[in-house]
Sequence to fold (290 residues):
Amino acid sequence: MKTKFCIRGLSLFLGSLIFLLPAPLAAQSAGRIDFVARVAPTGGQPEPVRQLTFYLLRKSLDDIRAEALQSAPDTDLDKFIEGLTVSPELKAWMTKHHSVRLSGEDFIKGLTPEDIVQVPEYYKAYMAHNMAYRGIGFPEPKFKQKDITSNPEKFKDQKEEYEAAVRKFIAAAPDTVKGMDLELLEINPYSKWRSLGDKQRQKLNAQAFRLAEERYLVAHTDTDLEGHGSFAGIAAGRYWIAMLGTEAISGDVRLRWDYPVTVRQGETAQVELSNLNAVRSSTAALNSDN
Fold:
């Protein structure tokens, strides 16, 4: 009887001890993230980001993009310029200005009289655009094509004299440059360059999203109609709340987030996602391409 009593007492003791033991380490270290996402259009009130998927990553999406770039190198502007069928002077101008955009207000404002005279395509476009000015103040050339062979020195001097006069005229009448980009439409390579850039960005985004999902994804959740979302049972550490392949849109504003958050053991991190801590859409980047 004494032996049975001892065994029974030991069992009761061990049973009570189980309740006194600490919880498993994973449960102890788990935390939670509660967030709300809102986006405000220009001049408008913030609106909840409804029923969109947010991802919790162990690495910043921008850093993941940089990693993806190693296997999907960006388009090479210099290489693109070298393959164009334009004059060496125009290639040199594009390389110097790191741009292939031959249209628009910024392009026109950036042209100097020297650029227009030195680059054959610009010179031809300017002359064609200003035919109406001939005879009313526009310089008249004195050199003749026959002098190229019969008197090359005279031809060279008079041509240089004329080009100097054209540069002086452009400097004195800068409005005559406006609109000359219309004469460059057929050789403007900007649309082709932009198309290449769009395809490359799509490829890079796909690679970055694949890396994010395969290597760095911790959890994902959809926001409710009020823009609220949460990640539960998250181990203590540093994370990023991100959007993959989607944007929060309100009026003229398009946003995404790549927001860092720290999870502490047994605590709930409260996060407010808004215009102030968002990353502007890649659409804005497209509009600023070279």
